[in-house]
Amino acid sequence: MRALSLFAALLLVGCGGDTTPVPGPGNAAPAPKPPPAPEPEPEPEVDFDALDDAGKKAHLMKVGKEVYMTGGSGGVACMTCHMADGKGTPGAFPPLVGQKEHMGDCTKHAKIVLDGMMGEITVDGMKYNGVMVPQKDLLKDLEIAAVITYERNSWGNDYGDCMPSDVATARKSAE
Ligand code: HEC
């Protein structure tokens, strides 16, 4: 009898005082749950080095647009300052359209993005003296190569591609 009441007490504790009737012959069976929605397919990892030149360019442009618009895996979205159309904000954030001289070659361009930029510069006859945040600890080489390739080939720019190996070189020479 003692064991039985202990069992009853445990049962009560176990139920947490819930008084919902136990499903039985008198109660309707719970409705069957709908099958879970299929998980979205994860994007396949791209083996960048295995792509041909056209494939590499297409991949860099796709990832580069993401980084530019959203900041990629941990960076700051470039469009916040340089605007979605690359035209910047006159007097505050310089344009990226038609700026080959400022961007320079791929390694110089990579250094700007890796280390950021500050100090007075003149772009299209307008002075800028702002601060651009360094991205070197925030983005991977492939993402930096991608965003640079995107800038160099968008909004009418046609300044060639940048590869992750170029960014790795820029990283080394910046140390
Ligand atoms: C917080 C605002 C901000 C963000 C975010 C930002 N920049 Fe900048 N960027 C600037 C400013 C300000 C300058 C000019 C700095 C100066 O006055 O010396 C600049 C300069 C540049 C330049 C050289 C000048 C020119 O007009 O070509 C490049 C290239 C550039 N940024 C690319 C990028 C890229 C790529 C990203 C994203 C990874 C980015 N920026 C994110 C503010 C920003």
Could you explain the architecture of this structure?
The chain is 42% helix and 6% strand. By secondary structure, it is mainly α. It has a single domain, classed as Cytochrome Bc1 Complex, Chain D, domain 2 (Orthogonal Bundle). The strands form two sheets. A two-stranded antiparallel sheet has the order 1-4. It has a two-stranded antiparallel ribbon with strand order 2-3. 22% of the residues are buried. Residues 8-12 have low confidence and may be disordered. Heme C binds at residues 75-76, 78, 80-82, 93-96, 99, 102-103, 109, 112-113, 117-119, 121, 123, 128-133, 135, 147, 151.
Hey, roughly how much beta strand do the residues contain? 5-15%
- CATH class reads Mainly Alpha
Rg? 29 Å
Distance between the termini: 80 Å
User: Could you tell me which ligands this complex binds, including any ions or cofactors?
Assistant: heme C
